[in-house]
Each structure stands twice: as structure tokens, then as C-alpha cells.
Amino acid sequence: MPENPLAIESNFTLDPRLVHKNLAYYISGHGYGHYARSIPVLRKLVIDFQVHIKSEIQECFFTKHFKENIRHWYQLVDTGCQHFDSLEVDCEATFRKFNSFQDRSTIETEKIWLRENQITLVLSDIASMPLKAAHEVSIPSILIGNFTWHDIYKGLKGAEKQKDLLQVLEEEYSCADLQILPQCYLPPPVTMKSKEVGFIAQKGQDIRKDIEEYLNFCFEGKTLVFVYLGQYGNRSVLWENLSQSKDCIYLTRDPIEQSVNGLYILDDRFDFPDLIASADVVCTKGGYSTIGSALASYTPIITCERHDFNEFEAIREYLLKTRTGVIIEDQDFYQGNWQGAIKRALNLTVKDKVPLDGEIEILETVHQILS
Fold it and tell me: At residue 278, what are phi and psi to the nearest 5 degrees?
């Protein structure tokens, strides 16, 4: 990733008839959850608008979904959290990187870009910088997020020494004209105008038969568990203990290096939403995007605590209140002792328990603001 945060333009096709309807959509590059959540919203927006995407998520992740009415600008828009693994935040590195980003603040450059590209509305998931830039050039803005980086950073170890930076974040977020609150959200400041919507999630297709054909055996009589812990989290689990459960087949796309009976590592020919929709249970680190796709596919969830991430307070409460997920104790999670949790999850029902299709409500809101 380039250190220079200035945007690098791509070559997507744009419709000249929509030039008066230019939107800028900023997407956090922290993991792929914000990107995944943005895809359903972008699918709705490109029907009626010309959308400029700004993110450090590579262009190729968008070209698989969109061919026109999208222009991608490669740009660092926030710094998120730095991690030891998918469950533990490196607090010192997180603040150090955020400090560096603020020292190279590009708000003045961003204001020029917004004017030059005739942007009529800014949407951001969940970067704060573009909200302030939009405010200073009198462009309305929408923050999309069930939490903010201010929510996360203020709960990290050492936050008491970062009051100035936290104040900057708080000020930038306050510039949003509206915060869209997908399900599982942390309460926004009372001064923030907000709107609650359903889950924003990519919905997959059941491809179990395709997976059976690829692996060359039948899943009949087996419980199919899809596992997603991400790039770092897979290092912490004793995977060999999963083989104790003879009734389960575990599927993952995580880069797990060891060979374990009953655990199958698939490649990117199988999309995450389809694997989630094909599973009986999803075991994950508790990130919004995976949980949203699971609930949209009516698949119960297993997760463990994320002690350093304030967002998980809302996720834990939501899963337990709606009875759509099981929380595993940390020791059992890391030891791979998932059998009891899987049995409890299989007794849960998900269908009709949670509101979905938040992207439709966002499109309606965008039209209202620009009407």
C-alpha cells in the first residue's frame, strides 16, 4: 500500500447522462468487512447515480461486481486498527498509525477533489475525514456504520493519552448530516441525527452440491460448518481438535497450513456469501459482514468474545437477544472445542428474526436528501 494517501484513478466506464448525480463513496480498508457491506449499497446506487469509490481496497474487488457507473480511486481514507491477530488489537501500533495519518491530513486536497468532480453527496463507511471535507464545502454527507473509529479507539488501552486525537475524530464525525445505523450498532451521540436500518449484507446461493462435486464426496448426514477467522485469527486455534467431531465437515477459505481430518480449505472460486449460505452453522470472529451474510442466509452463528473491540458489545447483545447465535468461551474457542456450541447453534432458528435489506432504505434516504 502506498504511503501517499492521494487518490489514484481507475478506468471504469461512466454514463455522461448521470454527471449531475455524482456521489462519492468512501470505504475503510480495515479488513474486508466494510467493503463487503458496501457492495449491496453500491448495487442500488449505480442504477440511479454515478459513484466514485475511494478506498485502499483494490479495484479488482469492485470490477467483479460492476462494469459501469463506477469510478475507483485508490486512496487511504482511514487507518482502522492494527492487530496481533483477528481477536486482539495492537493498541500502540493503532494509535501510532492514526497519528501518522492525521499528520498527513489531506482534507484540503479532498475539498478540491469534491468540487472538481461535482460531487453532490458523500457517503462514508466509516472514515471520518471525508465527512469534514464535505461539510467544509457544503456538500451533504451520510455516515454508514454500526460503530465509529471514535467508539473503538476510546476503549483501547492508552486512549487516555490520546485525547487530542480522539477529539479530532469526534469533531470529524459530528460533521455528518446523518448516520445510518445497520443492526448491531453502538448508540450514536445524542446530537447526531441517525436512522436505524436492516442488516446490509451480501446474500449468497446454496452451492452445497457444487462443493460436494469439487471435494468428491457426499455431505449427507453431516453438519456443514463454515469457518472464517481471517488472515490472522487462524494461527490461534488448535485445529487438530476439530477432527474429534465426526459428524461435522468444516469448510474455510482461511490460509490454514496444517492438514486436519474433516477440515477442507477452499480457494476463491467459492465466494464467501455462497459458502455461508451453504452451511448449517457459521463459526466466525464476530465481524459485522460475516454475521450479516449469515443472518441474511438464515444461518446460525458461533463466535467468541473480542475483548479489545467495543463493537462486539453490541454484537453479543444482539445475538443473545435475538437467539440467532452462540458465544463460545475463549478457552474452548482457541482449543477447538466447538462441538457443544455447534449443537446449541443447530437448535436456533434465524428466519424472520432480524430486519434485512438495509441497502434499500439507504437508497430511499439518498433520494430524499437529493430531491
Answer: -90, -15
C-alpha cell at 245: 467431531
β partners of residue 249: 224
pTM for the full predicted model:
0.92
DSSP code, position 262: T
C-alpha cell of residue 142: 451520510
Nearest C-alpha neighbor of 328 from the set 345, 349, 348, 351: 345
Cβ neighbors of 18 (< 8 A, separation 6 or more) are 48, 49, 50, 69
Task: Tell me the torsion sign for CA atoms 233, 235, 239, 241.
Answer: negative
What is the three-class DSSP state of 86? coil
What are 89's strand-pairing partners? 83
CA distance 94 to 100: 10
Task: Let me know: does 25 contact 54? Beta carbons within 8 Å.
Answer: yes
Walk me through the domains of the chain, giving residue ranges and CATH numbers: 8-200+357-370 (3.40.50.2000), 208-346 (3.40.50.2000)
State the DSSP string of 168-232: HHHHHHTT-SEEEE-SSPPPPPTTS-EEE-----------HHHHHHHHTS--TT-EEEEEE-HHH
Q: What are 191-241's pLDDT values in tens digits?
A: 999 999 999 999 999 999 999 999 999 999 999 999 998 766 667 799 999
234 secondary structure, DSSP code? G
Q: From residue 74, how far is each of 44, 61, 81, 111 by CA, in Å?
A: 22, 12, 19, 17
**Helix and strand totals (H; E) in the chain:** 15, 16
Angle between helix axes 163-173 and 91-103 (nearest 10 degrees) is: 60
> Which cell numbers hold the place of 340?
457443544
Q: What is the pLDDT of residues 127-153, one digit of tens each?
A: 999 999 999 999 999 999 999 999 999
Please identify which residue in the block is written with the cell numbers 455516515: 143
